[in-house]
Amino acid sequence: MFTPDPIPRPSGPPASSTPLADYLSWTRCGTDDDYTVLPRSLAESMPLPWQQHMRDLLAEFHQAFGHLQWPVYRVVPSGYERLTELDEQQLSEIGCTMELGDNGEPEYRLRDGSRVEDPEERQVLVPRADPIPKRHAGSEGPATGPAPPDR
Residue 69, CB half-sphere, CA atoms under 13 Å: how many? Predict the structure, then answer.
């Protein structure tokens, strides 16, 4: 038996053909233009069904892209700060120096010696303390688990 009524159409915009790119462009939690970082301590503290889904997605991802030459990534918690608010160590970490110019005003220079114009407005990415809690020894679950099953 079929109804003569038309099939209701979903309201709202049509589904995107790039839903992950759309979402990652919108959020800033652990994401920049090139990478998305999932803090391991948070991922391992998700409810068990979520962890199982995540494991399956990552296994498929690694199966599809495991043939690539993967580097070892070092993730450094960072945040944006005004150049003029950095101390000498932070300036050194980002490859910048500050000297007093001929007029007695500070001048900021990059590694190549070029002068930074408008340093009061220049925002730079600098390392900072990680606000995400780490897993502690003795917390639930193994610190290093068995190798993932072959799929």
Answer: 0
Range of the domain at 50: 25-65
Residue-by-residue pLDDT tens, the chain, 151 positions: 667 788 787 787 778 889 888 888 887 788 888 889 999 999 999 999 999 999 999 999 999 999 999 999 988 898 889 999 998 888 988 889 898 888 888 889 888 888 888 888 999 988 888 988 887 655 554 444 445 555 4
Q: Where does residue 93 rank: exposed (0-12), middle (13-18), buried (19+ CB within 10 A)?
A: middle
**29-49: b or e for each residue (b if 16 or more CB lie within 10 Å)?**
eeeeeeeeeebeeeebeeeee
> Is 7 part of any domain?
no
Domain count, the chain: 2
- The domain boundary residue, chosen from 43, 65, 87: 65
Angstrom distance (rounded) from CA 35 to CA 12:
30
d(CA 121, CA 83): 8
What pTM was computed for the model?
Answer: 0.63
